[in-house]
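FORM 12-B: Structure-to-Sequence Request
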């Protein structure tokens, strides 16, 4: 990318350019690309040295990454993201708020020993939920609900840490009247449970780093069968995201090495309840039209 006309000029254009070119990058540049996609506020607000340390690369590699996208160096790319934060009235990015919270926890632990674990989890989950509200757009949610509503059969899969989210979605979607198959893989039967997936169906795949191999294989099988995939994951360049028709990105909280599911479950509940409301409104409109025709 060399011409100035092709240089991304907004944060959204930058994200689109990275996603489009991700597979063409070297492993080192892919590492940086993932960090930029997953932690744009860090790149916007921190110095190049700090960003390099957190992403595990040399500052010169970040400069090479920026030049590969058409910028003269890292600073114009950082300025673009910083301007985007300011335009959205985001005074402090999620990553920075988490680090400030960690500092406060360390100070409190110094006074109270182990501190208050319940307060730690509640406060950290509050940050993750606030970030979900700020970053998840109505357009993204509407598209996800539309995919779910239009599917003839839903397949829901999520292993390991994602299993509670998948089981909740499978149960709740059945409750609102959608034909749903929970791909739980019991007895090693994941392939058989996915055997009937077809072009009119939707696979909802939930997975987080390091990404369950069974989920990745299920996504590959669904795509090969012509089905659409809705991915709920922690990165736009995760194995599921790259094959999905639509991606909902979730950043969860972590306390002392234990990662939460508060934001993912909140998102799952939002999808189900929104679908229920939409189906109820559609039913009411249909009934109203029927009454008018009879009248």
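FORM 12-B RESPONSE
SEQUENCE OUT:
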């Amino acid at each position: 990318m060399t011409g100035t006309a092709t240089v991304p000029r907004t944060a959204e254009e930058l994200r689109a350019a990275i996603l489009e070119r991700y597979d063409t990058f070297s492993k080192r540049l892919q590492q940086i690309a993932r960090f930029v996609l997953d932690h744009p506020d860090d790149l916007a607000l921190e110095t190049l040295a700090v960003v390099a340390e957190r992403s595990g690369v040399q500052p010169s590699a970040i400069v090479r990454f920026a030049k590969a996208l058409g910028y003269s160096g890292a600073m114009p790319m950082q300025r673009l993201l910083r301007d985007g934060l300011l335009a959205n009235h985001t005074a402090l990015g999620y990553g920075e708020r988490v680090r400030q919270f960690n500092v406060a926890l360390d100070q409190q632990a110094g006074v109270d020993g182990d501190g208050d674990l319940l307060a730690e989890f509640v406060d950290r989950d509050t940050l993750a939920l606030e970030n979900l509200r700020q970053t998840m757009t109505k357009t993204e949610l509407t598209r996800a609900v539309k995919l779910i509503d239009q599917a003839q059969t839903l397949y829901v899969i999520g292993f390991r840490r994602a299993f509670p989210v998948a089981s909740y979605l499978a149960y709740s979607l059945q409750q609102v009247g959608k034909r749903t198959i929970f791909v739980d893989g019991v007895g090693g039967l994941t392939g058989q449970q996915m055997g009937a997936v077809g072009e009119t169906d939707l696979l909802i795949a939930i997975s987080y780093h390091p990404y369950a191999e069974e989920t990745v294989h299920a996504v590959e099988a669904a795509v090969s069968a012509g089905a659409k995939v809705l991915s709920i994951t922690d990165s736009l360049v995760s194995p599921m995201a790259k094959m999905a028709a639509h991606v909902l990105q979730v950043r969860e909280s972590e306390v002392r090495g234990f990662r939460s599911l508060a934001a993912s479950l909140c998102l799952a509940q939002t999808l189900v309840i929104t679908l229920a409301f939409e189906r109820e409104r559609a039913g009411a409109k249909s009934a109203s039209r029927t009454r008018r025709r009879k009248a």
